[in-house]
Amino acid sequence: MTVAECIQVSHEMVALIGACDAGPAAWPADAVLLGFHLGAQPMLRMNGRADDRCGGAIVLVVAREACLRLFAIDPQDGDYHLPTELRAIAHAIVDCATPAPVRTTYRLGKSIELLCESFRLLTAAALVPAREDGALSLTDARRLIEARRLIDERWNEKLTIDRIARACGLNRVKLNRGFREMFDCTVAVALAERRLEEASRMLRTTDRPISSIGYDNGYLNNASFARAFARRFGVSPSDYRLARLAA
Fold first, then answer.
1. What is d(CA 203, CA 142) in angstroms, rounded to the nearest whole number?
2. Which CATH code fits 190-246?
3. Does the pLDDT value for residue 26 go beyond 80?
4. CA-CA distance, 67 to 74, in Å (whole number)?
5. Cα(208)–Cα(162) distance, rounded to whole angstroms?
6. Which tens digits make up the pLDDT trace of 190-212?
7. What CA–CA distance (Å, rounded) separates 63 from 4?
8. For the chain, how big is the Rg over CA atoms in Å?
9. 163: nearest Cα among 155, 172, 174, 173
10. How confident is the model at residue 103 (pLDDT cuts 50, 70, 90)?
């Protein structure tokens, strides 16, 4: 196999960067493989048997004992749709153009982040299995994943259910029903959650006026933003900002 870069993160973890099939060189004992595929259908392929069928633009090879000790998980075989947050980390690793040895150090740190975020989402049951069985066809499941990606990445646009449905090639009824089945929430709730999470980040990290933050996140007036924010976080936007500054 050809590996663009093999990074020995620790005695319990190796990161293989580059479009390749993972081989056994320098693997930790009793290893688990996490393969991150970044093509037309981004996917996380988890291989609990550590054979060479995992593949991917990035392959993390991790000792099973480390998975149990750090995350209390014994990984099993499974394919999952790759969510936006994991794709962003994976692309940062693959696309890093910084010259070596800084590139290697950067990729090492981001590989640890990628591992931790993957297991965090797996523990929270937030990874959506990529499978062809069940009530949803594979085509519809992929369209629903695209709808979720649209919300995650274009939350600041004037998105409506009809616009999301048209963009993903689903009718309104199938979008609403399938989205609830796949993500256990409605399209409207997912969009509001994404916008409020971004609003909370802006309150923590900028000094922009609260009214401006609310408007940029889809709320046309302060009152509606404050109500929605308080329902989600339990405090008003101003109190949230003050508490974070005082921490």
1. 34
2. 1.10.10.60
3. no
4. 6
5. 32
6. 999 999 999 999 999 999 999 99
7. 22
8. 20
9. 172
10. very high
